[in-house]
């Protein structure tokens, strides 16, 4: 069995991850698994921790370790980018979903219950590759990787609101979580104006003058467990792009309902693409997000391509009922 280095964000999901970490640690001790761990203290700590750990590994140690993340999508994103920053080896990743959304875990079939997800990791005998997205932002000379999505416009604003909302126990008990989604949807429409977008896929250019949503997805789920790109798949070696334009208030509300029921791709004004490489230019200051983490209002000149990364997980090693 591999030796595990754990990066733990006890602050994830408003502090609920602390209890999850305690149960995971107890299970690792019970099974006498070899591991060490590091707790994050501040935002983006996971990126620096991962980079430092990977950078110091000897060649012989590189084949022994798996990095296990206990936290949310943001912690997983930071860890992936920290490993890439080290520029040495793509150390396999595993993930105990402990955040507010856990979209990537849901997208690849990881169990919702932390100890079942741990079982999927400990049952693995070899790494399996899943797609991740790579982006290069030409205007600000920035690059990085994402597991879920990169978006600009209303979708980014909506994702930010859903990502930061505190779940209501009463709403969860009465299954009324959809109400916060529609409230956030209404606010996103009222606060966001349309903007022009230039799209290039291969040798083909398309121009949109009144765009509200630009979303590049690696897997179907985004904040709140909703699907904006229901055909996105983290194993198909492609990225999915959704562009929504010419949205009046009625069409936007109808789109929100169709997204809730996963029927949006045939809706007029929704443009869906699948490609290995995508180039997008937005010449106006727009709100953005990457894997639920906010970006400042900025101009965008973005190049995207699909990549792959090794994960130490055996999704099929537990029954379907245990995954849900």
UniProtKB/TrEMBL annotation:
Return one GO MF term.
Answer: kinase activity
Q: Which residues form a coiled coil?
A: none
Which InterPro entries does its entry note? ATP-NAD_kinase_N, Diacylglycerol/lipid_kinase, Diacylglycerol_kinase_cat_dom, Lipid_Phosphate_FormReg, NAD/diacylglycerol_kinase_sf, YegS/DAGK_C
Q: Which cofactor does it need?
A: Mg(2+)
Entry superkingdom = Bacteria
**SUPFAM superfamilies, A to Z:** NAD kinase/diacylglycerol kinase-like
Per UniProt, residues of the DAGKc domain are 1-138
| UniProt KW Hydrolase keyword | no
- What Pfam family does this protein match (any one)? DAGK_cat
Q: List the GO biological process terms.
A: phospholipid biosynthetic process
- The entry's keywords: ATP-binding, Kinase, Lipid biosynthesis, Lipid metabolism, Nucleotide-binding, Phospholipid biosynthesis, Phospholipid metabolism, Transferase
Q: Which family does it belong to?
A: Belongs to the diacylglycerol/lipid kinase family.
Q: What protein am I looking at? A: Transcription regulator [contains diacylglycerol kinase catalytic domain]
């Amino acid at each position: 069995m591999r030796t595990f280095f754990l990066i733990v964000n006890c602050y994830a999901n408003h502090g609920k991850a602390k209890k999850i970490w305690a149960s995971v640690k107890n299970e690792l001790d019970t099974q006498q698994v070899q591991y060490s761990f590091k707790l994050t203290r501040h935002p983006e700590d996971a990126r620096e921790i991962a980079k430092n750990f990977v950078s110091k590994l000897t060649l012989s140690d590189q084949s022994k370790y798996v990095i296990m993340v206990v936290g949310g999508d943001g912690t997983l994103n930071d860890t992936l980018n920290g490993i890439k920053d080290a520029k040495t080896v793509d150390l396999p990743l595993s993930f105990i979903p402990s955040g507010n959304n856990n979209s990537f875990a849901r997208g690849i079939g990881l169990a919702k219950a932390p100890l079942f997800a741990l079982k999927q990791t400990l049952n693995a005998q070899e790494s399996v590759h899943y797609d991740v997205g790579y982006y290069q932002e030409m205007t600000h000379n920035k690059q990085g990787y994402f597991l879920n999505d990169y978006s600009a416009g209303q979708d980014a604003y909506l994702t930010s609101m859903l990502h930061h909302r505190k779940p209501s126990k009463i709403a969860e008990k009465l299954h009324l979580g959809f109400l916060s989604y529609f409230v956030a949807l209404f606010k996103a429409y009222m606060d966001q104006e349309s903007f022009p977008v230039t799209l290039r896929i291969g040798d083909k250019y398309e121009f949109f003058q009144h765009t509200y949503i630009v979303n590049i997805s690696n897997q179907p789920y985004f904040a709140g467990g909703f699907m904006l790109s229901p055909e996105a798949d983290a194993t198909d070696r492609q990225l999915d792009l959704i562009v929504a334009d010419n949205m009046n208030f009625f069409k936007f509300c109808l789109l929100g309902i169709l997204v809730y029921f996963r029927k949006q791709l045939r809706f007029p004004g929704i443009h869906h693409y699948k490609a290995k490489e995508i180039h997008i230019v937005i010449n106006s200051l727009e709100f953005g997000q990457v894997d639920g983490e906010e970006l400042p209002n900025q101009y965008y000149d973005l190049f995207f391509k699909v990549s792959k990364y090794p994960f130490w997980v055996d999704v099929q090693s537990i029954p379907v009922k245990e995954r849900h």
